[in-house]
Amino acid sequence: MLARAAKEAVKAASGLRAYASASGGLPPRKVAVLGAAGGIGQPLSLLMKLSPYVSELALYDIAGTPGVAADVSHINSKAAVKGYAGEDQLGEALKGADVVIIPAGVPRKPGMTRDDLFKINAGIVKALVEACGKHCPKALLNIISNPVNSTVPIAAETLKRLGVYDEKRVLGVTTLDVVRAKTFYAEKAGLDVSKVDVPVVGGHAGVTILPLFSQAVPNAANKLNDADIDALTKRTQDGGTEVVQAKAGKGSATLSMAYAGALFADACLRGLNGDPDVVECTYVASTITDAPFFSSKVKLGKNGVEQIFGLGELSAYEAEGLKALMPELRQSIQKGEDFALEKQ
Ligand SMILES: NC(=O)C1=CN([C@@H]2O[C@H](COP(=O)(O)OP(=O)(O)OC[C@H]3O[C@@H](n4cnc5c(N)ncnc54)[C@H](O)[C@@H]3O)[C@@H](O)[C@H]2O)C=CC1
Ligand SMILES: O=C([O-])CC(=O)C(=O)O
Fold it and tell me: What are the Lactate/malate dehydrogenase C-terminal domain coordinates in residue numbering (predicted)?
């Protein structure tokens, strides 16, 4: 049993990474992680060190990165690793970056919403994105810091002000919602999780997270009733809170987020490298609803977002969910934009 599980895990890992052996012929790519000494930052740095798509890995935080970088750099994979600590080293960390992953900021404690993090994280994201606009304006930004529904609009406004905004290059990371939806759906329907896909649209907070189980592959409608779908939807929406409560004051999801962040960053890198079939859900500037930012399936290419796919056919339950999420999503976007404009 254990041997089989171990074999499956190795297969999954090699499918994800193909490790260094697949890296021949790939163009050199620099990835910077901002907040690299944190709960997400450390395992994410480890996973990006294992990525065959990364040749240079810059690990930045306000402190602690020399240690993380020294540790991760001993792994015998391709990427050259360097640690950067403190604001005066931020420019150097960003220079030449193709992808910048931003998990910098404070996490939730039990009883808090993601929006409760706005007060601290809005300023952190704004300052870091400003530096990106100055030092690597062409990089794809992967924004993990919460509240994502507001931090992505903050990033957009900040870059607009610097005159370097490209809406194809600012991406909010909602991959963990997809990862959770796949896991919960496969478990409930008794499916092989490695063969499951579930689009998740909307935003990244509570009811704004809308999994589209009616479009899940494979379709398990004959195995799941309306109550099951309702329970799966709520569990996906509350996935972050489930972890926050289980950690009981010691933060929020870090390991599953690092996994999801690495999947998404690899997808961005594959797109940059010209892989023609890279489709992921991500929270971006969008016109598919009347909210100026929205998460949906997106094709990633040489310049970031190449195509934004529509929502497809929704079940009546999902259509209700969509209607219900719009006011909160719009409000969070407005709050982010107001903040960025106020702080000019
Ligand atoms: N998008 C998503 O799906 C998810 C987002 N998150 C969010 O990710 C963020 C980070 O979470 P954790 O890693 O658990 O927190 P953490 O507190 O363990 O780590 C955050 C790191 O950011 C660093 N930091 C703070 N200010 C900084 C600055 N100005 N420049 C560079 N680094 C700075 C800290 O020194 C720390 O090392 C939180 O806002 C959390 O809510 C967490 C899970 C999922
Ligand atoms: O719930 C949180 O605060 C962290 C997060 O965004 C998630 O785990 O989805």
Answer: 174-339
Q: Considering only CA atoms, which of 205, 249, 238, 241 is closest in space to residue 109?
A: 249
Q: Which tokens in the block code for residue 68?
A: 């993380």
Catalogue the active-site residues.
204
Cα 119 to Cα 130: distance, rounded to the nearest angstrom: 18
**Residues 17, 164: Cα–Cα separation, whole Å:** 32
Query: 22 C-alpha to center of ligand 2: Å?
Result: 32
Binding region for substrate: 108, 114, 146, 180
Quote the ipTM score: 0.99
Q: For the chain, how many residues are written?
A: 344
Per residue in 30-77, pLDDT tens? 999 999 999 999 999 999 999 999 999 999 999 999 999 999 999 999
Atom 7 of ligand 2, residue of closest alpha carbon: 240
Q: Which atom of ligand 1 is nearest to the CA of 127?
A: 29
